[in-house]
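Hi support team,

I'm filing this because I wasn't sure whether my run with zinc ion finished correctly. The job status page said complete, but I'd like someone to confirm that the output block is well-formed before I use it downstream. Pasting the exact inputs I used:
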Amino acid sequence: MRARIYRANGIVLRRTNLGEKDRLVTFLTRERGKLRAVAKGSRNPRSRLAGATELFNVVKLLLAAGRTFDIVSQCEVVRGFGSLAEDLDRMAMASEAVELADALVEEGETQPPLHAALLLALEGIAASGNPASVARCYELRTLSDLGYTPVLDRCVVCGGRGPGAVALSPSAGGVVCERCFGAASDGMAISAAALRALRSLGRRSIESAGQHHVAAEIHAEIARVWAPFLEWRIERPLRSAQFARALSVRRGA
Ligand SMILES: [Zn+2]
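And here is everything the job wrote out:
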């Protein structure tokens, strides 16, 4: 039997309005994986729960088991990421990070490594000098942790390790060489430099990725081919990636 009252350490992934006064908040918790709980009265901006359940917040929770949804009885903010609101690029990357976590785990599925990885990613995206490197490293690590390691060091079709990888194919799960390009109908061209950068980020820890500089044009190229790769894996469009694409189009990147 589940305890009526329990504690959990969580990160706010999403929140949606529930009726006139409440919100349904999705947390990724260390102890119980992804869970949704009602934050009563939190649609009122003056309610303490409204601020405590802001997106990206790292929180200590006291929850009460409910019939349909559990109820947030206490929510103490351990770390907030309000500064992200001042930087649209970082905000888009952080949104993509939580959206990916939300899409990759089912409710109740415990994923302590993902909780730790998301925390490191949000820290690095908010504060490091290379937020895009942190974001891509987190995504590569997360796919690997969940058993979806993208094949980047050889052709995913023929296994050839020559230098001729020319495209990234979401459906094949990695890069394809020139000869196999026709076999992967969704292959998107990728330059040798962008592929090198992606491989190198995949070998790093999320903490060290924040010190890894990659030229802005290489990051822009990676973002174009990488978002469809993630979207294929989670079987739906990433709202935040569409937002990031709109940002870069506006800047002419
Ligand atoms: Zn091949």
